[in-house]
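Tutorial handout. Part one gives the primary structure; part two gives the three-dimensional structure as tokens.
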Amino acid sequence: MKTAVVILNWNTRDFLERFLPGLITSMPEGAEVLVADNGSTDGSLELLDEKFPGIKQIRFEKNHGFTGGYNRAFEALVKMPEASDLEYFLLINSDIEVPAGWLEPLISWMDSHPDCAACAPKLHSWQDRDSFEYAGAAGGLLDKYGYPFCRGRVLKKLEKDDGQYDSPSKVFWATGACLMVRKADYEKMGGLDERFFAHMEEIDLCWRLQLEGRNICVIPDSVVYHVGGGTLPNDSPWKLKLNYRNNLLMLRNNLAKTYALREAVSADSAVAARKGFRKAGRTIFMRQCLDLCSALVYLLTGKISLLKSVFEAHKEYRKLTTRLEVSEIQSFLESHKGISAPFLFPKWIVPLAMTKGNGIFAYIRNRI
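Part two.
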């Protein structure tokens, strides 16, 4: 087993029944599908036993979230005798339809680009198959305040795929809905950050990988089709809380090191670490202020449950965050000389998208 394609399932029986057969038949030699189950109670396990008895299962007694589920699935996977030659660990949602030949371009790219830690296909909408899908489109970017967006998706605007992203490209992050990660890199990073539980954990992982000098790519010869919202609907207050909270955790994990790498081009490690630390603190404070502006909008529009989500997110962030010292950043710089700082889009994407309208996509393409 060179490539393990792992579905992390939690109460998505209908998606398994619809999409698992096509996924199984698409496997090339050396690749295998496994299902890790996060304590489902909707008949998913019975379905697997009855209709897919040949599929390996990893069962958990409770829901460990996206992060804990995949980390535990990876730990179980690498202990399997048939995984002794494992090179690639592919995370895939149960609500994705794959065509024949989707996996080979990803494997081929990773085989020929050892500097690439993770890659993904283009993500199209299952409902509107010529359009990009919200969760990842043609690869993700991050703005100066940590707001994620994509080539092909900005805020809720989506592009049609007219071949404008048909060359393999480095990106800031690739979607966790269908993400191939090199086994060695996943191990080195310690997997996903389990404090996140779900949402933005793949962006954090991709950011951490780049801080180690590794690349993240989108391979357009591979396209998959995503239903979206299979586990949590977009208007879920809990989902909103996770996004606000995890965005701050992600910034805390990575932003000071990123700024310090920029400063280290023209300053010694001690000075660069101090500057990076202070600048990251100011940016995170600004992001928290922007979150509070969002909360005010929810208040004025009567969306009280969403208002509460923002405050709960900030409260949990303060509880979960770890103290960061300037000395840690300096130590990081001294052990990572020659690594370039990951690229953050230099503007705030929200007002830019509102003023540019549909022209935002061409604007972004001309600046990355």
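Part three, for discussion. Residues 269-300 form the longest helix (32 residues). The longest strand covers residues 215-226.
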